[in-house]
Amino acid sequence: MKTDATVTQVERRLFDYRPYWAECFGVAPFLPTSREEMDQLGWDSCDVIIVTGDAYVDHVSFGMAVIGRVLEAQGFRVGIIAQPDWRSTEDFMRLGAPNLYFGVAAGNMDSMINRYTADKKIRSDDAYTPGNVGGKRPDRAVIVYSQRCREAYRDVPIVIGSIEASLRRIAHFDYWSEKVRRSVLVDSKADLLMYGNAERAIVALTHRLAGGEPIGSIRDLRGTAFVTATLPDNVRIIDESMLPDERVRDQFRAVRMEQSDVPSAVRLPSYEQVRVDRALYAHASRLLHRETNPGNARALVQAHGHRHVWLNPPPVPLTTEEMDWVFERPFRRVPHPSYGDAKIPAYEMIRFSVNIMRGCFGGCTFCSITEHEGRIIQSRSEESILREIQEIREKTPGFTGVISDLGGPTANMWRLQCKDPKIEASCRRLSCVHPSICSNLNTDQKPLVQLYRHARAEEGVKRVLIASGLRYDLAVREPDYVRELVTEHVGGYLKIAPEHTEAGPLDKMMKPGIGTYDTFKAMFDEFSAEAGKEQYLIPYFIAGHPGTTDEDMLNLALWLKANGFRADQVQNFYPSPMATATTMYYTEKNPLKRLGRESEHVPIPRGARQRRLHKAFLRYHDADNWPMLRRALTQMGRTDVMGQGQDKLVPGFGYEESSGRQGRYQTFKTQHTGLPVMPGGRDVSHHGQGHSERRGRTGKGARSSSRNKPNSRRRH
């Protein structure tokens, strides 16, 4: 079998392939979703059929549209089966059998996070469905859709992707069943899994399948995973299936390895091991996260019974030219006409926004952006971004001159990168900014300031707002950037994410200390006053994050009261697959450090009662929470913060007055990062997606922010 022995950093550019013969059919107005639409295009069949849990929106923020249009540009005929009825094979057969393969995706969100709240309650809505109607996709959609495709056409290859498959590529803790599940490859019985933003792999795979290669022989594509019964002879397998301290104690296994040019792969603890041994689960998680740099990552292999899940190294990031090419496919920028006038909330939130980059080097442990999009920032050119603004002006219905966001996973990482490509290629840091900003990181925001100015100068553009989450530890290094942002691009509120005030949880989150927030707030207030504007920061805080104690939450609540904040909505930590914080939650160990049986114990707010208590601390002002808080404070020996007065958190026993708002307070909605608020204040769980927007109101006369959007850019 071919393995990482043939995987190379030198990758063919997306636009250098010779188009497939079906290029003669030209560009489809919309990718077909029915036989009738295929007939109108003159197609007798589809080469590739994409099955997705989202409604079909022909927009660059929706994964099925991006992959479909990219393959169309290669000359392939691509059909879409959007939100099929999974209870039978009928919908899966509506376009006939694809000539090459089914591409199966849960959609822009993980189907479990889409359907369930952090407290495991079923949601009634779905931002990616017309009319915001819930229940249009199954639980574990990738597995279910793959099964139906196989039942419909047994011999057609199945390729799985999207964030749901990407973050389940090895054995993983499943919060909803409270157990470790197998790789989604094994459960779905798919032929190939693609993780991350998969344009490079999907283009190469499709051309090779069209050229006659069987899918079972295509084993050398970066960013892919597959199941194999045998391991290759030409790859050195480095056995890391034991904990480091136990490996040293086993003298018979302590063998000195000589340097070799033979490619290597790392053996992770098996599914059977991590299913029953939490220390080994944490060890496997640590190994996986250390192998995420495309410049030095090795293949990974994890046994599942008598077979092996093989993960090739991560995909090589797209160049700026390739990013421009992908983002400038002929998207219609609207939902498929079959939905009529029904509103799709996810589309409504992003239709006037522009995504300028991919990736995030922040490394927040509760977020899975790095595991999906990568740590290396992939930036579009300024020219391409401005062309998209012009396209919004010309093609998007309802445009009034306001660009609702110019951002991405993080607002201010565009064009930031390591100063030295050699250092970047060899680095194994999980974050470029924690515990401190790396001296090799270029943090110059002058190009971003220039982009903002040129965007504002575009004809027909009245205002450009920044709604993506801001990395304020980077921003404070560039006062001129903060001044530009605050003066021109804040719509009354700016969202930032300190997440907590205490060192314990912040260390486990890999977030900066609260002092950095204070520095940024001082700059924000100064420049707002300088501009003559009344503007406010909306901070986000996470309740129940691993590493958080009751005392930590008390101190956070006291900080909130001292600073005049009252949370309108609160979201508990949501353990999403593959996130480092989820590993902490499940194992009570810290995979950020060397692991052993006796290594650091991480306190976990576990169980419904303690999770409710931590949420109650964030809503200290709610009288409904006072009885619970009083009991907890009494048990903690902190009755000193009970009573009347500004330095008291809650009234003492016997005081049951309604929690009316007295004085001037800033109210805000705070959630686990990645869970954007929906219109009307409902929260939508957005799996593993680093920075999302919350709306709040603060003070009399404050302006309302109308920019609420899910980060539907986390795709493929």
Write a concise keyword list for the protein shown above.
pyruvate-formate lyase- activating enzyme; disordered C terminus; ten-stranded mixed sheet; 2 domains; three-stranded mixed sheet; Rossmann fold; alpha/beta; 24 helices; 716 residues
Structure description:
The chain is of the alpha/beta class and 716 residues long. The protein has 2 domains: 14-195 and 199-224, Response regulator (Rossmann fold, 3-Layer(aba) Sandwich); 320-331 and 347-621 and 661-698, Alpha-Beta Horseshoe (pyruvate-formate lyase- activating enzyme). 30% of the residues lie in helices and 13% in strands. The strands form 8 sheets. A 10-stranded mixed beta sheet has the order 3-1-4-5-8-9-13-12-11-10, with helices on both faces. α18 crosses α20. The longest helix is centred in the last third of the chain and has 17 residues, at 514-530. The model is unreliable at 1-6, 251-258, 658-663 and 671-716 (pLDDT under 50).
In short:
The chain has 716 residues and is an alpha/beta fold.
Chain-wise SSE layout:
Blueprint: H1 35-41, E1 48-52, E2 57-58, H2 63-73, E3 78-82, E4 101-105, H3 111-115, H4 141-152, E5 158-161, H5 162-166, E6 172-174, E7 179-181, H6 184-188, E8 192-194, H7 199-210, E9 224-228, E10 236-239, H8 244-249, E11 264-267, H9 271-276, H10 278-290, E12 299-304, E13 307-311, H11 320-327, E14 334-335, H12 345-350, E15 353-355, E16 357-358, H13 369-373, E17 378-379, H14 382-395, E18 402-403, E19 405-407, H15 421-426, H16 446-456, E20 463-464, H17 472-475, H18 479-488, E21 493-499, H19 503-509, H20 514-530, E22 536-541, H21 550-562, E23 565-570, H22 580-587, H23 608-618, H24 626-636, E24 666-670, E25 697-698
Parallel strand pairs: 1-3, 1-4, 4-5, 5-8, 10-11, 11-12, 15-19, 18-20, 21-22, 23-24
Antiparallel strand pairs: 2-14, 6-7, 8-9, 9-13, 12-13, 16-17, 24-25
Helix pairs in contact: 2-7, 10-22, 16-18, 18-20, 21-23
